[in-house]
Amino acid sequence: MKRATTMANVPYEIFVGLRYTRARRGAGRNRFVSFISAVSMLGIALGVAALIVVLSVMNGFQEELRTRILAVAAHIEIRALDGAIADWSAMARLAQTNPRVRAAAPYVLGQAMVSSGQVNRGAIVRGVDPALENEVGDIGSHMRSGSLADLKPDAFGIVLGAELARALGVRLGDSVVVITPQGTVTPAGTLPRVKSFHVVGLFEIGMFEFDSGLALINLSDAQKLYRLGDAVSGVRLKLDDLFAAPQVAQELLGVLPFDAEVRDWTQSHANFFRAVAIEKRMMFLILTLIVAVAAFNIVSAQVMVVTDKQADIAILRTQGASPASILTIFVIQGALVGALGTLLGVAGGLLLAYNVDTVVPFVEHLLGVQFLDKSVYYISELPSQVQRGDVITVAAIALVLTLLATIYPSWRAARTNPAEALRYE
Predict the structure, then answer these.
(1) Which pTM was predicted?
(2) Spatial distance between the Cα atoms of 85 and 259, rounded to a whole number of angstroms
(3) Are 388 and 89 in contact (CB under 8 A)?
(4) CA separation (Å) from 184 to 84, 191, 224, 300?
């Protein structure tokens, strides 16, 4: 039989499949089938939109926390195995032979007890060179008051995290006492080393770990406090691409002395970033099940359509239509429902993902609740970062599941016996 086409040279399978999709007859059965198809389309749209929004929020959350962590942590840190680097400038020059290293800065790191009045808090004290620190970190842009430039050598100024200052009850200009565990041996025994510092600045990163447990002092003051002489604890590096840190760290191991330890930011916070990645994958799998359920609702709708169109199928078969053509007609019908649902879901998901910072506050105001309490979570607002790869993956999965859902009903339609179908017509 010669293959039939419409006036527009469209294969008749496509023409008939589209006609079945948009057919609207008055019978209650047809209205019910149309309702099931509409529900399936809506379910796919909601599932796709939910996937896109959740993945975008997870991406934004991960990027926001990465930005806050790297405001304090360096892309790469070089440390000596014995705890002190005598000539840090030579170490920095060796590291900067790598073309991806953009800046280097020394630091001194130690534990201490910070005290004000009757209040004591444990903290990590970091000695920094204010002129170089802003080149490798972003903490200078998170200053609530004061500046890193106020950390003058031998002036014994200190910059505190906002939560640490609040716990100590101190403000700009107040004094705190720093007590180090490295004691001084006296005839009366070992006494801790004590030094008074005046607060010259406060910073707030937005992460409790840093805001409540980090204090910055001048590099020279830190060397005196911890009795390191001219040595430092390590060198912090900034790269042109933070995601190249693991590769650059491996390359630096072949250049630096054998007693140097090189750690990149992914190792320093490995457990945290691994947990976020696992959470994103699990949310993806869970929400994909919603799309799968909606997609396979198409099976029931398609089975009902096939049952309703038995006479039409029989007539097409008697006029020479092959089983493959019948299968194609119903695959097109089901795939169109899935494609429209996916398209609506992608459009709705992108619209919501790009405006989540407006929608969420509106819902919070409407319901009188706060979804993200700053005292509990790292952030108080939902960030969103749409990635093209996520959108394409979600749309592709929805389309594939839809096509799979159409196979069985279409196969049943293709096996229809014309004589049996027309017997009671």
Answers:
(1) 0.70
(2) 10
(3) no
(4) 19, 5, 13, 81
